[in-house]
Specification:
Elements lengths: L10 E6 L2 E7 L8 E5 L5 E6 L5 E5 L14 E5 L2 E5 L6 E3 L15 E2 L1 E3 L1
Antiparallel strand pairs: 1-2, 1-10, 3-4, 4-5, 5-9, 6-7, 7-8
Length: 116
């Protein structure tokens, strides 16, 4: 079996307060895995591409521990909701809304994402 590198000029962009921000090439996002990216204001975002090629972005900082680790979490679905589970304490965060599925009082920011 031969694997070919994806050849695309598509860029992943996040909607920020002042407009769209280009983060990386789409080809750098491996389905089922996360990556961390630095935003212009110094915050980190965790980017995900699922196996259906949908894109998601949430804050990379785990609000329970303060560690920037959500990009290294496991992804899955719960009742049709895509989530990332923190690799530290395993709390699950909805990738669309940022809500914590294990504690209604906690959430992370979620970003609108597109590939152009």
């Amino acid at each position: 079996m031969t694997l070919a590198v994806e050849t695309t000029d598509l860029k992943v962009q996040l909607q920020l307060a002042d407009g769209w921000f280009t983060v990386c090439d789409l080809s750098l996002l491996v389905p089922g895995r996360g990556v961390a990216a630095l935003l212009p204001d110094g915050r980190q975002v965790a980017l995900f591409r699922d196996r259906a090629d949908r894109l998601y972005a949430v804050d990379n900082r785990d609000p329970f521990t303060g560690a920037a680790v959500l990009s290294r979490g496991l992804t899955g679905t719960h009742q049709g909701r895509p989530f990332v589970a923190s690799p530290l304490l395993k709390q699950r965060f909805d990738l669309v809304t940022g809500e914590c599925l294990d504690d209604d009082s906690v959430r992370v920011s979620a970003y609108e994402v597109r590939a152009l």
